[in-house]
Amino acid sequence: MKVLATTCDAFLGGRDFDERLFNKFASEFQQQYKLKGSLSSKATIRLLQECEKLKKSMSANSSELPINVESLAEDRDLANKMKRTDFEELCSDLLQRFQMLFTKCLDVAKLKTEDVHSVELIGGSSRIPMIKNVVASVFKQEGKTSLNADEAVARGCAFQAAICSPAFKVKDFTVIEQCLYPIIIQFDQEEGSEQCMQTEEIDGTLTTQGKNMCIEVFPFLHPIPSSRQIVLLRHGVFTLEARYANKDSLPNQNIVIGTFRIGDASQVFTEPRKIKLKMRMNTHGIFNISQAQLIEEYEKEVEVSVSEDNPVVDGPPNSKQEVTTASNGDTESQNPPVDSNQTNMQDSTSPKKKTVMKKKKFTKYHDLSIEVSNMQFTTKQLNEFCEIGANLIQQDKLERERVNSKNAVEEYVYEMRSKLQGPLNPFASPAESESLLQLLDMTEEWLYGDGESLKRHVYVEKLAELRSKGDPIVHRANEHLNRPLAVDNFNRSLVRIRKVLDSIAAGEPTYDHLTQAQVNQLEDMIVQYETWLNQQMMQQNPRPQTSDPVVKVTDIVSQQQAMESVCHPIINTPKPPTASHTNNTPDLNSQNSGQSNDVNNPNTNSNPGTNHSKKGADDEQNMDLD
Questions:
Q1: Distance of alpha carbon 12 from its chain centroid, rounded?
Q2: Which residue stretches, if any, does this entry annotate as coiled coil (predicted)?
Q3: 39 pLDDT exceeds 70?
Q4: Residues sharing a CB contact under 8 Å with residue 335, sequence separation 6 or more, in sequence order
Q5: Distances (CA, A) of 556 to 174, 292, 482, 560, 599
Q6: Which residue, 576, 585, 529, 597, is CA-closest to 557?
Q7: What is the Cα Rg of the chain in Å?
Q8: Helix, strand, coil: what percent of the chain each, to 5?
Q9: Contact of 336 with 282, CB cutoff 8 Å
């Protein structure tokens, strides 16, 4: 895709239509109510928003439409009306500027209206009826609205991403843009030397001459991306400045692109040396000096082949290819070996050659350093900004932790105060309750006073102080709530083990495989842990709820687990295999011996049925033999 022409007006757009409506309604509003001064910032934003809505509504409706803004200024309401025809008349000069842009675009592209296939309108403000009319009058066709701005950008981004991604294979698609703002390079003049030398226009190399100090490297509408080269004569380190040529065409007044320092301070030449600069502008219109090279020309003697009859050097005189010679002085040949007879015939007919030394010119290129100083941030500045950003992120993290700690203190104050007057009241003595409530009230006053903006560790310490007073009360309530369930589970486990002992005492065969030592161990466990539980509960039951518990729920659970870890393996001991099961198990050796005995004496089989069948088989065999 090639861009033929590009024209723009950086100070013309949909905002100008909104401002025309705003200026009209604001002036009429001030004249109607005789207001002095301009509208406030808030009123200006509100009126601009309503003007934008009115502009969009007039695009779809040609009748007179109202605009209303309540309490715009000094409790006064704005109420007005406008037609589309009045709006077009109000913006007539803007339409002329649009028409000039379209006409200029055709002139720059050197196209006629019949050469244009279609006109696509992308963007909201370009689709208002008055702009469509201007497009139709200039291009002699209606503008199309098949794409909107979001779709155009999204499709372009998706297509460019597919081109850049190695995971997709797309057809070659090249975009040739144009340089909208011409770029020149400027450098200081050296006394006693020419600044530039004449070079031919080859591969984008510029033709320069004389003592020009400014060179236009990328003129207006030059195709991009592209690279251009220039050769200068300099004595040493020099500085170039790239800038935009036309200041009036820029959207801002900053014409300097950057400064480029070429070479090292140690490189000083007695005579002017050729320095080649390669300048490039990419697809995005970004200028850069990509390469700087010092050109070194020198002469070198090389061996060349000449004829004895005609002492003229074979090959072009300006050839820069070196010829390699063998140790005996004859020229080495890179051709494949040929027949000896053919070689003798050629030697007899062709003239004899010899090698001579001749000077030839060679060129070397040495890369020079380039120091860039432009409007973008340097690497050092970017690192500093990254460090500042990391510090800000860390500060935000610390602030969040501080706020969370403060909120935790405030939450604990409200929650504990509510619980002390509710479910936690039976588990706190009057003195504890009064002391804790007083501490909570003082903490609340402190939070909204001196402790409003303190460091995080202060709130952590304050929360720890509150918990040291409130957690014992919460612990008593939790113990009182969970203790009955833990005791009930303990008693259930004791009952299960006692049932096993009763079954053993009744002589049931389920546990007849247990030894007397195992049974005694089960009885000891029952007595030991049942006694421990009864003693603990006898001490705990008389105690008031406001005192700390004698036995904790965790102790009851741990004792139950210890008892079950000893008793359950004994109860679940598997029975040993019975004798009948052992006799029914087949023995390979006995089977083999039985088979050998059956061969010698078939009547000695333990199974009567088998003996009978084998005896019948023997009778049948005897009958066949008879």
A1: 36
A2: none
A3: yes
A4: none
A5: 80, 85, 11, 6, 72
A6: 529
A7: 52
A8: 50, 20, 35
A9: no
State the angle between helix axes of 14-33 and 41-60 in degrees (0 to 180), rounded to the nearest 10.
Answer: 120
Residue 197, both tokens: 């030398």
Task: Write down the pTM of the prediction.
Answer: 0.52
Task: Give the Å distances, CA to CA, from 407 to 413, 444, 448, 453, 477.
Answer: 10, 11, 12, 12, 25
Residue 523, token pair as written in the block: 């009885």
Task: Collapse the DSSP code of 220 into the 3-class scheme (helix H, G, I; strand E, B; otherwise coil) and give the result.
Answer: coil
Q: Are strands 226-234 and 273-281 parallel, antiparallel or unpaired?
A: antiparallel
Percent of the chain topping pLDDT 90: 42
Burial of 10: CB neighbours in 10 Å, binned 0-12, 13-18, 19+: exposed
| Side-chain-side CA neighbours of residue 521 (13 Å) | 14
Per-residue model confidence (pLDDT) at position 37: 78
pLDDT of residue 579: 60
Give me the pLDDT at residue 213, please.
72
Report the alpha-carbon distance of residue 481 to residue 549 in Å, rounded: 12
* Distance (Å, whole) CA 595 – CA 588: 11
Q: Among all chains, which residue has been given the structure tokens 């014992």?
A: 472
Cα separation, 470 vs 452, whole angstroms: 23
Cβ atoms of 184 and 243 within 8 Å: the answer is yes
pLDDT digits (tens, 9 = 90+) for 496-539: 999 999 999 888 888 888 899 999 999 999 999 999 999 999 99
Helix (H, G, I), strand (E, B) or coil at 217: strand
431 or 594: whose pLDDT is higher? Answer: 431
